[in-house]
Batch of 2 targets.
Target 1
Amino acid sequence: MTQHYTLAQLDAKANTIRKDIISMLEAAGSGHSAGPLGMADIVTALYFDIMNIDPKHPDWEERDYFFLSNGHTVPVQYAAMAEAGYFNKAELKTLRKLGSRLQGHPERTKLPGLENTSGPLGSGLSQASGVAYALQYMDKQPHRFVYTIMGDGELNEGNIWEAAMFAGKYKLSQLIGFVDRNNIQIDGSTEDVMPLEDLRGKWESFGWHVQEIDGHNIESIIDAASMARAITNKPSVIIAHTIPGKGVDFMEYDYHWHGAPPNHEQAKEALKKLRTLDGKIKAGE
Amino acid sequence: MSHYPLRDNLFADDVAQEPTRAGFGRGLKKAGEANERVVALCADLTESTQMHHFREAFPDRFVEIGVAEQNLVTVASGLARAGKIPFTSSYAAFSPGRNWEQIRTTAALNEQPVKIVGSHAGVSVGPDGATHQMLEDIALMRVLPHMVVVVPGDSVEAEKATQVVAENGKPSYIRLAREKTPIFSTDESPFELGKAYVLREGHDVSLLGTGTMTYQLLKAAHLLEQHGVSAEVVHVPTVKPLDEDTILASARKTGRVVTAEEAQVAAGFGGAVAELLSEKMPTPLKRIGMYDRFGESGAPNELLDYFGMTGEKMQTVIQAFINTTPQYHREG
């Protein structure tokens, strides 16, 4: 069902998704900015190139699965889903509001197309492992894949490593994880709060195939996913190095934007940066 | 009132006994035979929790998780997303004891039909001591929206309950015991989710039991009868949803209520009945169970006696309750 886009078109979509993230967070008045902006390229690559999905038929029985584990970054998923046609973009402005299908953290039962409920950290990889186990061993559907994105701060959770051990033991080769390696969490830098390195070595020692990529290079993201699908004897993880707040200079690298939304002036400024690709283009000034 | 057949020789020394977990083991295998979507996951306690029967019958549908209870229920949630009906088992102290948030988010809020089976619950686990004697699980699970909570009274009922829970489509908790306990029900006794059953009629007091405490209440009622007290015994295997009609009808008839459970009375089964009565029909209530304390090591029967959960000990407590408490009749 995948429609093919050029890399330039995918970059443009990621930029649109960033603008939508800013607008929806401003309207919500609460929520997380840095993570969603940093993950926009990965999520764009997943929804518009990598995953076999049908936005008009969210429960299509041949679809790939996507489990967002770090649920606080869900604005990027909502923005991508709206862009892909799961629902109308106008609904993005209802984020976090009473009666909305777009809950502050994703709830499966609220919105068709969401595969899981998450927010409390650490359980997405396990849930994805459960689906991958069913596909590989019980239902024998080797052509379907399960993708999940974890935050790097989330890797502090023990549940992640329980799942890593499980997926390694059972060689869940249809399971493909991304780590959004943006080096921040709420209390500061990941390496100050709870060091993660040697991160590659940790995953490898649990029996995973590991790739490290630039999480803003959509071609690299697509290539890495393609490589991961070709690995048939172990689960794969793609450590994607990203810049938190990517695309909005005053948010980039600043962990204070981990859990904060922009106010009206900040949103206006951010949208201008994104519209002009940080001054590189004049259109839309 | 539906008829509930009881065994004949209930109070004989040689009454048939079996652990409720054994009934679960048989029930799970039958559920697996009836529905190929039923799968099982265990956290390194496959024989203790009696899942080995299922594992042997359906090796391709059994998943060993290792000592990782958070992963146990979250992998199950994923299997449920892929269309399976996963049963997870461990000791209740660890599941739902250790992984409550994962159950809350990925099973209950996510509305996945993950079945949490907590084995070795209650003080009757015995010598292992307080760390392994789960007493808070009824409270933990019944407070979760969407969650069904079942505490089978004996092994025969546990077998039926497991098959029913497999098909109910909901996140569910089944609480089991390690030790052999008397079998009071028969193959013909009914089990329906959300139903309580009057096992014995009486007019002086309603004795409401869940799990294996129902048998001890039957025994207490038998002893009370010898002292001229007419006790009604109501078996409540489903703590959630609670059969409000049957409980209120019995309370209306007898005017006094006693609950019994091998768990913390606070927020447990006694707590659930207290909520119901205080809102819908205030009635004098005595809860039997654990009062704000942990268990300790000992032989199972010694512990039940020490903590006042045998029929004999309950009889004394119930008699004192009746002697000191007015009866709130609401009919006749």
Target 2
Amino acid sequence: MARVVVDVMPKPEILDPQGQAVAGALPRLGFNGVTEVRQGKHFELEVDDSVDDETLAKIAEGFLANPVIEEWTVRRIEQ
Amino acid sequence: MSARIGVITFPGTLDDVDAARAAARSGAEAVPLWHGDADLKGVDAVIVPGGFSYGDYLRCGAIARFAPVMSSVIDAARGGLPVLGICNGFQILCEAGLLPGALVRNDKLHFVCKDQWLRVENNSTTWTTRYEHGAEVLIPLKSGEGGYVADQDTLDRLEGDGRVVFRYVGENPNGSRNDIAGISSADGRIVGLMPHPEHAIDALTGPSDDGLGMFYSAVDALTPLVTPA
């Protein structure tokens, strides 16, 4: 078994209004100096050893992320 | 025989009944299609209606795109079956790769619910021949993730090939690139739009009956011309 983490982020050129809303709130909360926030998604998958990297890439690119608007990374965390 | 237009119901679909009513009002037979059933029941066209398929989990339309019925719709659409995607249906068609681009969160983060003027930019698609080119129509818009985005090459291609079918008139309600409200496939048989023509088929219950033109257009295309003997 391994834990696999897939992080999905909006592409830099895609407007991220959620991130902007968070960035806009920070100064109101008294936190200054944060110039940009981007909000994405974090998936944690428990997979058995039969799942190879190619399959994980297909899961990430074909389903968890939409490559039109998002970038993704896959990494295995050995347990 | 009247044209048979299938209307898909996913878990979370809201507007299948209105879509079926609009199809019937324009003279078609509305045929219910079930998300878990790959059988298209021999329909002549398909409407993928609005709502929140599978709760819009992951991304709008991302899970619905893999429903058994969509596998059949994708195959049939690539073979020329006319398909109309409305709101969540538009998002599903983009996720399925039948239409380019994607729909993202409205730029001001608010869910928009209003009667929206649209301009008909292309009246040669299967779903828009009943409109005059440049006509302005009043159609309800109700969506939180209605901002159309695509890379610049795709936008240039859509504009250059006349595949922008509807454009928002007046203030852009959701940050869509180029004020795009709806687009079509290269052959004009597949159309997706965020506003809801099926909610504008009768002035009693909608802001206008401007939406009917889309369904009449499809019926025109689907009903074979009968030559009197």
